Amino acid sequence: MTPEALTPERILEATEDVLRRHGPAKATVVDVARVLGVSHGSVYRHFRTKAALREAVTERWLGRTEAALAKITADAGEPAPSKLEHWLTTLFEAKRHKAGDDPELFATYTVLLDESSGVVDRHLTELVSQVTEIIEQGTREGEFAVDDAGSAAQAVFAATARFHDPGYAAEWRRPTIEAEFSAVSGLLMRGLRA
After folding, report:
1. How many Cα neighbours within 13 Å face the side chain of 168?
2. What is the pLDDT of residues 44-86, one digit of tens each?
3. In which element (H, E) is residue 182 found?
4. Which of 28, 99, 106, 110 to pair with 65, CA 20 to 30 A apart?
């Protein structure tokens, strides 16, 4: 690959491959450059530091989930209660599939999440903002009885943390996890309607 054909997206794809193979402790920018067939200086032209590259990979990974959830949030045709259930289910399934389908990369991202607190904070803020938007819609529609949509969204997000926080990933393989998720989400939905 020529340095001119090198794009940030291609670098991020190669970085994911390298992280999957070597893990975050052993993966280097030189490894990424080698996969791309360029000098490590070419990679540094797009990402000034190894930390910036790792943060961009983390942001890209989290962004995929955000984008899928944003589509649900923006769906004007879906009533807020079913939209919120759909949103929560999609978040849970996305995290669970990431952990189960690609455990090496998921473990790597768990390490990177600890390093990229700003990226993670922005991600969490965006997710809570989406839940807030759905709850506001439900309040306008008369489906939810909520005085403060932001506080309610924070509470919903915190109450469901076990089903989306990577710290709980080991529990997501339990045979009872879907029933537990349904119980929690059902309780939350009834609480929002009270």
Report:
1. 14
2. 999 998 888 888 888 888 899 999 999 999 999 999 999 999 9
3. helix 177-193
4. 28
CA-closest candidate to residue 96, choices 189, 165, 186: 165
Residues 93/32, Cβ–Cβ less than 8 Å: no
**66, 123 Cβ separation under 8 angstroms:** yes
Residues contacting 118, CB < 8 A, separation 6+ = 55
Instruction: List pLDDT tens digits, range 97-116.
Output: 888 777 777 777 777 777 76
Q: Residue 35 corresponds to which amino acid?
A: V
For residues 149 and 51, what is the distance between their CA atoms, to the nearest angstrom?
36
Cα separation, 71 vs 138, in Å, equals 17
The one-letter code for the residue type at 32 is V
Label residues 177-186 b or e (16+ Cβ within 10 Å = b).
beeebeebbe
Instruction: Return the residue matching tokens 């944003």.
Output: 70
